[in-house]
Amino acid sequence: KKIETQFLGYYLKWIPQEAYYYAVENTGFKARPYRTEGTYSKYNSIDDKIDDLHHYTRFIKFGIGRATDDASQEIRNNHITREEGQRLVKRFDGEFPKRYFDEIMDYLKIKPKHFLKLCDKFRSPHIWKKINKNKWKLRHTVNKSGTDD
Questions:
Q1: Taking the CA of residue 23 as centre, how many other CA atoms within 13 Å lie in the half-sphere pointing to its CB?
Q2: Nearest to 142, CA basis, from 71, 58, 61
Q3: What is the pTM of this model?
Q4: Can you spell out the DSSP letters for 109-129?
């Protein structure tokens, strides 16, 4: 079979929020009734259960989460202000993706406690600081609320 893949970005400049509105108006696309964990939108990566966990582990490793990505894009596209972006990042970046977590752990055959211990092993000391036995905090944040800000 000759299967050809087409992406909307081939035809329109890729601006996520505008692509969403285009899809709603022209295809009947519907966002989820709940937002994506780790960010504030309801229309990104809604067909992939493991995506939220990917963004969470990236937050652990690099200190930058999905809300930072989404807010940065929307600030550059003049859809929100920097101040709005900062509030969204403070509220949603690093949110633990619990919705599909147990299902993913079952699929991967990993015990949740083991997974969380693995996550902590990948927290870089120049990005994270342990502030008590079980709590980690970013050293620097866009909101200047890190341990070293």
A1: 15
A2: 71
A3: 0.88
A4: T--HHHHHHHHHHT--TTTEE
